[in-house]
């Protein structure tokens, strides 16, 4: 719901060209939903190693944002951007905003622990763009999302890890090191703790 709701509210669908920043737990869902809704999807990532996965999920394009001037060929390209990364304080926001069409939106669902960088009004002026954020959606959106998942057989990309002290520690370490592809699910509860009544 965290990514489905803003995608729908911002109009993801056929004829829309959108970008997803970050291909992690939230970002991979954003790609799956945006593609299912019929949008043309570009993934913006600092991690080139995720390109093949992004394309398998249905993204049409993959852009490595750690490359110099990555944004220049994308001026006025996107109807909106969904940012799932929590490191916006490290972004050159002018670069991201320059890729938005007139009245485009930069929408955050990756809510970091650091403040948004100081910005000047002039950064919004060339295309009249906006910045926003959201957390979750509502019940009708949830039902529509589950219906879409059922009709198009959309499933998250998960790694199963048997629950244990070691398993939990490994998962936390891998999340911190950005090595999860793309959600970890702890399994074998009954084997570890016994059958529930």
Question: Percent of residues in helical segments?
Answer: 25-40%
Taking the sheet with the most strands, its summary is: 6 strands, parallel
Briefly note the CATH topology name of the largest domain: Rossmann fold
Q: Any idea what the CATH architecture of the largest domain is?
A: 3-Layer(aba) Sandwich
Using the CA coordinates, give the radius of gyration: 18 Å
Give the termini separation: 32 Å
CATH homologous group name of the largest domain: NAD(P)-binding Rossmann-like Domain
Q: Short description, anyone?
A:
With 197 residues, this protein is an alpha/beta fold. The protein has seven helices and eight strands.
Describe the overall structure.
The chain is of the alpha/beta class. It has two domains: 4-152, 3-Layer(aba) Sandwich (Rossmann fold), CATH 3.40.50; 158-193, no CATH class. 31% of the residues lie in helices and 22% in strands. It has helices spanning 4-9, 25-36, 51-56, 93-98, 139-152, 165-176, 189-193, and strands at residues 17-21, 40-45, 61-64, 78-83, 100-108, 130-133, 158-162, 183-187. A six-stranded parallel sheet has the order 3-2-1-4-5-6. A two-stranded parallel sheet has the order 7-8. Strand 7, helix 6 and strand 8 (183-187) form a beta-alpha-beta unit. The protein is globular.
């Amino acid at each position: 719901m965290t990514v489905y709701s803003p995608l729908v509210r911002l109009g993801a669908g056929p004829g829309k060209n959108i970008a997803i920043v970050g291909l992690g737990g939230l970002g991979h869902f954003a790609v799956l939903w945006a593609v299912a809704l019929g949008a043309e999807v570009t993934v913006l990532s600092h991690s080139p190693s995720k390109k093949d996965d992004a394309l398998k999920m249905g993204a049409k394009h993959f852009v490595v944002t750690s490359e110099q001037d990555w944004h220049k060929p994308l001026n006025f390209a996107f109807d909106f951007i969904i940012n799932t990364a929590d490191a916006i304080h490290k972004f050159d926001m002018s670069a991201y905003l320059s890729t938005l069409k007139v009245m485009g939106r930069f929408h955050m669902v990756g809510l970091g622990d650091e403040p948004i960088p100081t910005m000047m009004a002039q950064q919004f002026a060339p295309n009249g763009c906006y910045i926003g954020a959201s957390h979750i959606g509502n019940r009708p959106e949830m039902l529509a999302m589950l219906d879409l998942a059922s009709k198009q057989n959309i499933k998250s990309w998960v790694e199963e890890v048997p629950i244990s002290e070691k398993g939990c520690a490994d998962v936390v370490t891998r999340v911190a090191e950005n090595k999860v592809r793309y959600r970890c699910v702890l399994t074998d509860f009954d084997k570890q703790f016994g059958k529930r009544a």
